[in-house]
Design goal:
The structure holds 2 protein chains of 2 kinds. By secondary structure, chain A is of the alpha+beta class. Chain A is built from 6 helices and 4 strands. In chain A, a hairpin with a 2-residue loop joins β3 and β4. Chain B is an alpha/beta fold. Chain B has a 5-stranded mixed beta sheet, sandwiched between helices. The model of chain B has no long low-confidence stretch (mean pLDDT 97). Classes of the chains: A alpha+beta, B alpha/beta.
C-alpha cells in the first residue's frame, strides 16, 4: 500500500477481516428479498465507503448482477464508492442556498481543500459533497461539516471554519 | 370486467387490463418507448401519458390498470401537449444525427417526432455524454444516443437473466451499462444482441461488417461465397415492407448474386450435417452410458446458439461437458468451405472469403473465436445480420420485390425441411429426433406430418417423450427406452431448465436457443420482433419445411455425398478435426 494512505481508517489486512465477517452476513441474507440496501448500509458503516470487492461479494451472495448492485449504489447519494475522509463537508446547493451564494461557498471549499465534489483529500481528513437542501433555508447559505451546521457562511470565512476540523 | 370510457367511447375489458391495452381495443395506439411485451410495465419514459378524469397528474397508460367508470382522454389538448413535451425533452438530450444514423430507417424516436408533429427543437441544452463502446465483436453502444428507456435493461435482466446492463448513477447523469463504467467486453455479456433488437434508437447496434464485405467483393483476388441461415428467409422480406412471415428464399438468392457473391450457399446444408453429427453423438453418449456403463454427461445440450455457449462458459461451467461438441452450422460451413470446397475447386483457403448472413449478433462473436479457425485462417470471415443484408441490398439499388427467384448453388445448396426448422424453437430437436429415430429403428418416423407437437410454439420450456420400439440390432440397448427431451428458448427459460436438471429432472437431450422464439427472433433480425411476428415467421418456416419432399437430414443426397467423398462417417477423425470443438470456463465480472 502506498505511503500516503497510511492514515487510512482501515488497513488492508483489517479490510480483509471485515470482508470475511461481512461475507458471512451476506450469505445469511441469500434468499431474503429486500436485503440489498441494508447490506450496503452495513458495509458502508464498516468501511466508511463501499469498496468494489465488497460489492462483488454482495452481488455473488445475493445473486444480483453486479451491474444492478452498482446501479443501486450510484442511485443513492448516501452511498459512496470513494473512501470517505474523517470529516464530511456538505455544501448545500439547494435553491435558497444557491441564490444566496452557495455556489461561491462551494468554490471556496474546493479551493481550500484542493479537491472536487465526491473526492477525499489525500490525507483522508476531508470529503466534499453537495447537499440538496438541509431544511435550513432561513440560514442560507448552509454548510454541514459532519453533524454541525455552519450558517450564513461567506466564501472568505471558509478557511477559518475548516481550520477547526483540521487535526 | 370493467367498463370505462376512452375519449367518451365505452369499452369493456377484463379487470387488470392496462389503459394502453384497453385503448388498443378501440383502435387507439398510444405511443410507447419503455414498454416491452411480456414484461412488467416500467412507466419509465412517460411517452404514453394520458389524461384521466379526476387524476391530479397525467397517467402512464402502460403501467395503469383500468378501473370501473374510469374516463380516459388520450387525445385531449393536455394529453397531446404532455406527450409532445416528454418527447421534446428526450430529443433535447439525444445526441444523434438522423442523417447518418444506422437506425434512420426504423428509429422509433424519429418516427414519434414525425407522428407528433415536432417540427423544431424548442429546447437546446446539455446533451447526453457520448461514450462509444466498441469493445465486443458483436455490439456497439453509443451512450449519446441512449434515451434511457431501459428496454435493453429489461430484456437483459428479465428475459435473458444475464443482467449486464443497468442504469448507473441518476438523473441527467444516468448511463445504461455495466457496473463501474466498464465496457461490455469486461463483463459476462453473452452478446445475444437482444438489447440491439429492442433498442428504439441507435444506442445499441450490431458491429457493422457491410464495408468489409464490400471490400472483399471488390477485391478481384478473392473468391467470396455466402451462406444464409435458416431464419433469414422468413424475415428478410420485412426490410422490403413485406408482411412478417413472408418467405423470400428465392429473391434472397437472386439478390445475393446481384451483390456479387461468387456462390450462394445455404447454412441449411450444414444444419443437416449438424443433425448427422449431433444425433450420432447423442447415440454414442447413450451407448457409453447404457452399454459401457461409463460416466457420460447427459443430457446432451445443443450447441448451435453462440449466445448460449457464452452463457454456459460464464455461468454454468459445470455443465460444459454436456454441450455437444458439434460446431454450429455456421462454423461447420466455414470449415468445410475452406477445406472440402477449396480442394474440390482447387482454391487456396486464404483466397476464399466466407460471409454469413445470420439472424444473430453473437455469430459475429463466434466467427472470431480462436477455436473456429484452421492455421489462423478463420472459418468464417464476416457475419452480416439480416438487417445488414437488407441495408446492403438497399445500398446496391436492388429492387428486391421485383427480383425473380433464384436457386442455391451446389454442393452446399440442397437441404431438407429438417434444416429449415433450425430457425425456430423446438426445430433442432424435432430435426434430430426425426433422424435419430430412423437411425435406431430403420423405420419411418411415425408422427403425423413429422412434427413433435409438444415442442412447437412459443411456450418457454417444452418437453416431450418418445418411446423407442423395434430397434435395429446395433441399437437394441435402446429398446423400450423412453427418450426424454426438453426445449428452452431465451436464457431466462434455459436457466430454469438447468435448475430443474440440477434438481434431478431427467432428460436425454436438451435444445436451447438464446433468443425468444429461436433464431427467427434473433438479435440481428428486423425490428421490432413481437410474439405476433415470431408466430408469423415460425409459420413460414414450417411452411418451408412442409413444402419440401426432402424432410429428414439423413436423406439429403448431398449430405450422403460429402460423407462418401470427404468426411467418411459422422464423428470420423476428419469430422472431429473440422466440425467439433470444446468450450472452456470464462470468468468475467457479473
Amino acid at each position: 500500500m502506498a505511503p500516503e494512505n497510511t492514515t487510512t481508517p482501515q488497513t488492508a489486512s483489517n479490510e480483509d477481516e471485515i470482508l470475511d465477517h461481512l461475507d458471512r452476513i451476506f450469505a445469511e441474507s441469500k434468499d431474503k428479498p429486500g436485503s440489498l440496501i441494508p447490506l450496503l448500509q452495513l458495509t458502508q458503516k464498516m468501511y466508511g465507503y463501499l469498496p468494489e470487492k465488497a460489492l462483488k461479494k454482495i452481488s455473488k451472495q445475493l445473486n444480483i448482477p453486479i451491474s444492478e448492485v452498482a446501479g443501486v449504489v450510484g442511485f443513492y447519494s448516501f452511498f459512496s464508492t470513494q473512501p470517505k475522509g474523517k470529516h464530511v463537508v456538505r455544501v448545500c446547493q439547494g435553491t435558497a442556498c444557491y441564490v444566496r451564494g452557495g455556489h461561491e461557498v462551494l468554490h471556496a471549499v474546493k479551493n481550500e481543500l484542493k479537491i472536487e465534489v465526491g473526492e477525499t483529500t489525500p490525507d483522508r481528513q476531508f470529503s466534499l459533497e453537495v447537499g440538496r437542501c438541509f431544511g435550513a433555508c432561513g440560514l442560507a447559505p448552509v454548510v454541514m461539516i459532519d453533524n454541525d451546521v455552519v450558517q450564513r457562511l461567506k466564501p472568505s470565512k471558509v478557511a477559518e471554519v475548516l481550520k477547526v476540523y483540521k487535526k | 370486467m370493467a367498463r370505462l370510457h376512452i375519449n367518451n367511447i365505452p369499452v369493456d375489458v377484463p379487470d387488470g387490463t392496462t389503459i394502453l391495452k384497453a385503448a388498443r381495443e378501440l383502435g387507439i395506439r398510444i405511443p410507447t418507448l419503455c414498454h416491452l411485451e411480456n414484461t412488467e410495465a416500467k412507466g419509465a419514459c412517460r411517452i404514453c401519458v394520458v389524461e384521466v378524469k379526476g387524476a391530479k397528474t397525467m397517467i402512464a397508460a402502460c403501467a395503469t390498470p383500468v378501473t370501473e367508470g374510469m374516463e380516459v382522454f388520450t387525445n385531449s389538448k393536455a394529453a397531446r401537449d404532455s406527450r409532445k413535451f416528454v418527447l421534446e425533452m428526450l430529443l433535447s438530450e439525444h445526441d444523434g444525427d438522423c442523417k447518418t444514423c444506422s437506425r434512420n430507417d426504423d428509429c422509433e424516436l424519429k418516427a414519434l417526432a414525425a407522428e407528433m408533429g415536432v417540427t423544431d427543437l424548442r429546447f437546446e441544452g446539455e446533451r447526453t455524454r457520448k461514450h462509444i463502446d466498441e469493445t465486443t465483436p458483436a455490439l456497439i453502444r453509443d451512450s449519446g444516443k441512449c434515451i434511457k428507456c431501459r428496454r435493453c435493461v429489461t430484456v437483459c435482466s428479465e428475459v435473458q437473466m444475464v443482467g449486464s446492463l443497468f442504469p448507473q448513477s441518476r438523473g441527467f447523469d444516468t448511463t445504461i451499462g455495466p457496473a463501474f463504467s466498464q465496457d461490455l467486453d469486461s463483463v459476462a455479456c453473452v452478446q445475444c444482441g437482444q438489447c440491439s433488437a429492442v433498442c428504439p434508437v441507435g444506442a445499441i447496434i450490431e458491429k457493422d461488417h457491410i464495408q468489409d464485405v464490400w471490400r472483399a467483393l471488390d477485391n478481384p483476388d478473392k473468391y467470396v461465397i455466402v451462406q444464409t441461415a435458416p431464419a433469414i428467409r422468413a424475415a428478410l422480406g420485412e426490410c422490403f415492407d413485406y408482411e412478417p412471415g413472408t418467405l423470400v428464399t428465392g429473391k434472397m438468392v437472386t439478390a445475393l448474386r446481384h451483390l456479387g457473391f461468387h456462390k450462394v450457399f445455404d447454412t441449411n446444408f450444414t444444419a443437416d450435417l449438424t443433425i448427422m453429427e449431433e444425433g450420432t453423438e447423442l447415440l454414442y453418449r447413450l451407448k457409453k452410458k447404457m452399454v459401457n456403463k461409463e460416466d457420460v454427461a447427459l443430457p446432451q445440450f445443443t450447441s448451435c446458439s453462440p449466445g448460449w455457449i457464452n452463457f454456459m462458459e460464464f455461468y454454468y461451467p459445470r455443465f460444459l461437458n454436456h454441450i455437444s461438441t458439434c460446431k454450429s452450422p455456421q462454423q461447420m460451413f466455414g470449415a468445410l468451405a475452406k477445406s472440402y470446397y477449396a480442394q474440390k475447386t482447387g482454391k487456396k483457403p486464404e483466397d476464399i472469403v466466407v460471409v454469413s448472413v445470420m439472424p444473430c449478433t453473437a455469430k459475429k462473436f463466434e466467427a472470431q473465436r480462436t477455436e473456429m479457425s484452421q492455421n489462423t485462417i478463420p472459418d468464417v470471415d464476416y457475419v452480416l445480420t439480416t438487417r445488414e443484408l437488407g441495408r446492403m441490398i438497399h445500398q446496391a439499388g436492388i429492387d428486391f420485390r421485383e427480383l425473380p427467384d433464384g436457386v442455391m448453388d451446389s454442393p452446399f445448396g440442397l437441404s431438407s425441411g429438417a434444416a429449415d426448422i433450425f430457425a425456430n424453437t423446438g426445430g433442432v430437436m424435432e430435426a434430430a429426433v426425426r433422424t435419430v429415430y430412423e437411425i435406431v429403428t430403420g423405420k419411418p418416423f411415425p408422427l403425423e406430418n413429422l412434427h413433435i407437437e409438444p415442442l412447437m410454439g412459443l411456450e418457454g420450456i417444452k418437453k416431450a417423450s418418445l418411446k423407442i420400439e423395434g430397434t435395429l440390432p446395433e441399437w437394441n440397448f435402446l429398446e423400450g427406452v423412453t427418450l426424454k427431451v426438453g426445449v428452452a428458448h431465451s436464457l431466462g427459460k434455459a436457466t430454469k431448465l438447468l435448475e430443474a436438471i440440477k434438481q434431478g429432472e431427467e432428460f436425454h437431450f436438451i435444445e436451447v436457443m438464446t433468443c425468444p422464439g429461436g433464431c427467427i427472433g434473433g438479435g440481428g433480425q428486423p425490428r421490432v420482433t413481437t410474439d405476433e411476428v415470431r408466430r408469423k415467421r415460425i409459420n413460414a418456416i414450417y411452411q418451408e419445411d412442409e413444402g419440401k419432399q426432402l424432410r429428414k437430414s439423413h436423406e439429403n443426397p448431398d449430405i450422403k455425398k460429402i460423407y462418401e467423398e470427404f468426411l467418411g462417417a459422422p464423428l470420423s477423425e476428419k469430422s472431429h478435426h473440422l466440425l467439433h470443438t470444446h468450450y472452456h470456463h470464462k470468468e468475467r465480472l457479473n
